[in-house]
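Throughout our pipeline, every protein is held as a single compact record rather than as scattered files. Such a record has a labelled line for the sequence and another for the backbone structure tokens. This encoding replaces a full spatial description with a residue-level series of whole-number codes. For reference, a complete record is included directly beneath this paragraph.
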Amino acid sequence: MNTTDNATPADHLRYEIAQLEKMRQQIFSDMEALRQQEQNLRHYEARLRGTQPPVGATVAPFTGNARDVDVEREKLSRQRALLEAERRALTDDRIAMREEKTALAQYAEALKQREAWVDMRERDLKVKAFAPPPAEAKKPASVAPFGIRLGFNEVPFAGLFGSNRRSA
């Protein structure tokens, strides 16, 4: 029911009572759900307590005479020493592996540089191999004074004086 301006005070009162009744039923259902949850938790707690030993009770790790305790203590100390030796060996192995990894990385870098140099050198050699041979240059003749070129058997200014040969 909706309260409107033309509703009577009795209608308004009935509406409020209905709302309160709904709220009371909701509270009762919530309380019942909480009781059921609490009961489930108590059963769970009882089950846990049944599986665990009592809090005050302690169980001795070893029951025996003093000689047996000493023997077990010696075993424990030897095992600890072995464990410590293994730990040190593992640490040394890790350090050696790290150094080896660094050395391999340096070697790989050196190989890359060398391969790059070899590739460049091979390209240069291929270019030179497929390049046309240089043009045959004429053998330079000996140069006489005043820029006159002479052959091997020629005498300078021989044409001016007649013969190109020397007389013996």
Q: What stands out?
A: Strands lie at 142-143, 149-150. The mean pLDDT is 81.
